Amino acid sequence: MVRHAAVAGYFYKGSPEGLRKQVSEFITPTVMRKKAIGIVVPHAGLIYSGPVAGAVYSSIELPDTIVLIGPNHTGLGAPVSLMAKGAWETPLGVVSIDESLATAIMAKSPRIREDELAHLREHSLEVQLPFIQYLKSDFKIVPIQMLDTTFDTCVAVGKAIGEAIKERNKLNAENKGQSGDESLKRNSQTVLPPEVLIIASSDMSHYESAAVAREKDLKAIHYILNLDAEGLYKTIREYGITMCGYGPTVAMIIASKILGAANTELIKYANSGEVSGDYKQVVGYAGVVVV
């Protein structure tokens, strides 16, 4: 199955030429791009969240496989829905799903179910693809939507992703060690993409004044930067922070720590008022890199 773009011409420009030009306005060429294990990046219409998303994507190297975790805004599909085969299409082209990694992740937790319905109309993952496609011509994805954001489920999803990637990395290391012997190299398993980026797609506070949104969002960002998944979850609940992708972000933190994450950086924080001029009711956007 090819999952066709649901929000082209709405959240972003609908033509290849228009979209490529739109994304280019948010990308800053940099000499040094860091390897990242995970990122937090927003998913609003590009006119609003593009500056933050573009700043994050401009700062990192993009590997050959990317796990995308986003909140399920539509309510459709399974509690945790993974599209395990097929491809996604945007005006910039078609992106295949990494079926082997998708299968490995599902095998790690019964909470993650193969499901396509949740993805058909959801925008939170789709809006990431134009940035990645602009910067990289060949890559695969594993798309995951989370409707169930209880803490236990967030932890289970994060562990499944982290452990599946860790096992892939171990397999690659073993195959690489055999590569000096041509007979072993021919008989070894196919070498898989050695690096995987985990993207947590999330906007921050919704429809608060700019000052209140910033105050609340900085509380959440503090725990993200400290890779404190439980602290983030509790803070979201305690202060009523309307961060729509807190579940995916908790899962990303859990997975990243399994993969050895030790450092973080807040790349950019902004809000929709900087574009609309309305600072009385804004949506916050944060871009964080985990390495």
Structure characterization notes:
By secondary structure, the protein is an alpha/beta fold. The two termini are 34 Å apart. The chain has helices at 16-24, 46-58, 99-108, 117-120, 129-135, 151-178, 182-187, 210-225, 229-239, 246-258, 273-276, and strands at 2-3, 38-41, 65-71, 80-82, 87-90, 93-97, 113-114, 140-146, 196-201, 206-208, 264-271, 282-290. Strands 1, 2, 3, 4, 5, 6, 7, 8, 9, 10, 11 and 12 form a 12-stranded mixed β-sheet that branches. It contains 11 helices and 12 strands. The protein has a single domain, classed as Protocatechuate 4,5-dioxygenase, Chain B (3-Layer(aba) Sandwich), CATH 3.40.830.10. Residues 181-189 have low confidence and may be disordered.
Entry keywords:
291 residues, alpha/beta, Protocatechuate 4,5-dioxygenase, Chain B, twelve-stranded mixed β-sheet, 11 helices, 42% helix, 21% strand, globular
